[in-house]
Structures are given as structure tokens and as C-alpha cells.
Write a structure and sequence with these properties.
207 residues; four-stranded antiparallel sheet; 9 helices; alpha+beta; globular
Length: 207
């Protein structure tokens, strides 16, 4: 009975892995064979709430696909305040791009905000597949282009949109963050104080 339970759990884990990676690595040029090869080089890693995937001063050598949980990246400003730079939700890539691909020391921290189940791929494995699988090469280009677009859009919106508009957009695009992240971290991500965020939330509730 115990063996059946272990086998069933392992089967469910593989099914979850398959589903998660298929959702992330979606590209018309990736074949079933390609996806199998990509899946097999990802290894399961788990983080408890508060654990760090990366710290400032470390050199990143891998990235994660987040199956379940919530993580964030943050830095300290010149006054020593924590500023959240990004949130990573279910089925998203958890990465510090500059440190990983330029092999520089990270300026950011990446931390689990909840218990997390992830699938990790090391840089050397990724580079090997990136240069040998055309579909992964194209997926990587498309993913990076989307990240550059989002980064540019966010920097413009920090200037052109009100805090309320930015908060409403976050609710729409990443409801998991609203449910699971502390208010103070959401506020720094939006570029406002937690007092201002509390006021906005109250006004939206009343309205």
C-alpha cells in the first residue's frame, strides 16, 4: 500500500511537471521530442517561505520555472529600504537575467514569499539546448523580447499612470500577488507608501 502511494505521488509530480513546463515553453517550433528533452533537464527544487534562491553578491547559474507558490525580487535603496522589483507567480520564469547571462554578481535578491515548488535548469544545460534545439532558440528570443517590452512599459507607466491605475492593473494581471504578498511589498513595487496603498484599497472598496 505504501509503495502504491509513493508511485501515485511520483506520477502526480510528473504530471504537474509536464503541465507546468508545457505552459511555459509554448512555441510553434517546439516539437514533442523537443519538449521531452527540455522537460528531462529540469530538476525539482522546493523552497520554504522566506528561503532565498539568489542573494546580492552571488552569481546566478540557473533559473526556475515556478509550478506553485509566489516569489519576489528586491533590492535595497540608498537609504537601506527594501524595494520590490518584481513578483513571480505560478507558471512563470524566476530569473535574474543580468547575473545569469552576463555572469555578473547580482544586485538583486530573489526570495520565496510562500512555500514553493519549482523546476530548475542550470545555465550550462540551457545553453546546450538553446544552441541545439531551434524551437528553444526561438522561444528564448520571444521570451526575452516580451520581457524587454514589459520592462519598458512598466517604466513608462510608473510616470504616466496614477498609483490607483497601477494597482488595478496588478489586480488584473497578477491576482495571486494581491492574495499572497504583504501590503508593504506590493506598495514598494508600485512605487508608493503602504499608507497610500491602504488608502487606495479603502477608496476602491467604498467605491
Amino acid at each position: 500500500m505504501k509503495d502504491n502511494s509513493v508511485t501515485e505521488k511520483a506520477s502526480m509530480t510528473q504530471m504537474d511537471k509536464e503541465k507546468t513546463l508545457r505552459e511555459v515553453y509554448r512555441h510553434p517550433l517546439l516539437t514533442e521530442e523537443d519538449l521531452t528533452v527540455i522537460r528531462d533537464v529540469h530538476t525539482e527544487v522546493m523552497f520554504n517561505k522566506g528561503d532565498f534562491f539568489l542573494k546580492r553578491g552571488e552569481r546566478s547559474d540557473s533559473y526556475l520555472i515556478l509550478e506553485n507558490g509566489l516569489m519576489r525580487s528586491f533590492v535595497y535603496d540608498y537609504d537601506g529600504n527594501e524595494i520590490t522589483t518584481d513578483f513571480f507567480s505560478n507558471h512563470e520564469v524566476v530569473i535574474e537575467v543580468l547575473s545569469l547571462f552576463q555572469q555578473t554578481l547580482s544586485d538583486e535578491y530573489i526570495q520565496a514569499l510562500t512555500d514553493c515548488i519549482c523546476w530548475k535548469i542550470d545555465l550550462d544545460r540551457f545553453e546546450m539546448l538553446y544552441h541545439s534545439i531551434q524551437g528553444l532558440n526561438e522561444w528564448g528570443r520571444a521570451w526575452m523580447s516580451e520581457q524587454l517590452f514589459q520592462s519598458k512599459q512598466r517604466s513608462v507607466e510608473m510616470i504616466t499612470q496614477t498609483a490607483t491605475e497601477r494597482y488595478l492593473k496588478l489586480i488584473k494581471e497578477k491576482p495571486q500577488v494581491i492574495r499572497q504578498a504583504p501590503l508593504k511589498q506590493i506598495a514598494t513595487y508600485l512605487g508608493i507608501t503602504d499608507t497610500s496603498l491602504s488608502r487606495i484599497r479603502k477608496e476602491l472598496t467604498i467605491g
